[in-house]
Please model this.
Amino acid sequence: MSGADSDPLKHTPLYPLHVELGARMAPFAGYEMPVHYGQHIITEHLFTRAQAGLFDLSHMGQIRLEGANPAAALETLVPGDIAGLEPYKTRYTLFTNEDGGILDDLMVTNAGDHLFLVVNAACTAQDIAHMTARLDGNLRVRELSDRALLALQGPAAAEVLARFAPGCRDTVFLTAAELIIDGTPCFVTRCGYTGEDGFEISTPADDAVRIARLLLDQPEVRPAGLGARDSLRLEAGFCLYGHDIDASTTPVEAGLAWTIPRRRRAEGGFPGAEVILRQLANGVERKRVGIRPGGRAPARAHTEIQDPDGNKVGEITSGGFGPTVGGPIAMGYVAARVAAKGSALRLMLRGTPRPARVAALPFVEPRYYEAHTTEAHTTEAHVAALPSVKPRRYRG
Amino acid sequence: MSTLRYTEEHEWIRMDDDIGTVGISDFAQEQLGDVVYVEPPEVGKTVARFAEVAVIESVKAASEVRAPVSGEVVEVNEALNDNPELVNSSPIGDGWFFKLRISDLSELDDLMDEAAYKTYVEGLG
Model:
């Protein structure tokens, strides 16, 4: 995980731009990162849902896995379908441990002759050590520390990016392309962590500020910080590693069993398969659920969850105010007997029980661009064509 | 007298006879960011000096509002139930939290006046 508190905070290539834009900076995963940019967090959140927000994700780990059949090798560490990932397709998956716990969640793209991985900042060093130790010597694990990562998220993202890279119009949700932006080759993946259409743009570190400025100069784009990123992902129902999932939670408990396709369930061969396959067959004692607190008081992480009789049934793992929802939202783990949508719960807020209910995730319907039609939408046919991945649930 | 006095925790109190109106400073609301919920105290409650009286939740975090002086809560700002953002838009006006009937006026002498508070905040730079 991240280094000791005494370590000096690292800066991303966009740090000078954050300072210039008046960002309020805070430590996050060993980096000094922008929380918001002078405006309020709610404004950045709503602007991203209305037009487009530009986020700095350069703290996240970008890793190249290359060598002989990296997909087959990676499948020994994750329960997802990587071997079946077609060129320039992207997928959400999990590093699991021998107990079935989650070591990290990540995006994997088949980049032709190698795999391109994006992992959580706080887990990058651990993930690289894990892969290096567990994969055989014919594979190379290389951190792309000379690259920055920008996320352009929101309904205007495609229109904006197409001004510089018309080829982005040929991508759909969870596909990638090598695009030239202002003369610079970039690796662009149509994905995100907001529930909106959008792109994650991997650029050479030295070009990141210039490309970010180019995008910010567009009238539909404003910078957005980690504050808005967190409320957007919570509304979209995505897990935050270290909060909603960690080494003590399994994919089945976390509601991420959809990332494990039929073939992997039949073949096993990933860390913790015994535990995870048993849970898939027999069920689990606790589940991650969405929670709507009654009233207006937000319920934060670690808030105790009780059943209506006052028995402890779990704990909030992420919670706050959902600007698009217009009220408090949360997620957490509860005993399976109270995990059904609509189940009544009590949240212990400052010693006082407050009513709440289990709610469906996501809180806000996603608006991904999933086909070459005039608008972003989800169709039954498209979901049926992707039996192993429900596109609405994934994190980038 | 309508001058404000401040605590080191960024509450202000404005006196009108023996009734003091309490809120948080512009600096505090700026630090908190978007306020989304305020939990008021009960009217009639007796509170000790510096006791936690109300809770304020912003998008970022929860924090407490303390009584700058001891007294009895005689009124709470009902407008904050539906419009907690008044704390951001009008921190020393419509965004007040509660009113206290002060039990010991001499406690006010321990608080900062506007000039002292301004210097104090600058020192937090």
User: Anything to note?
Assistant: The first strand of chain B starts at residue 4 and ends at 6.
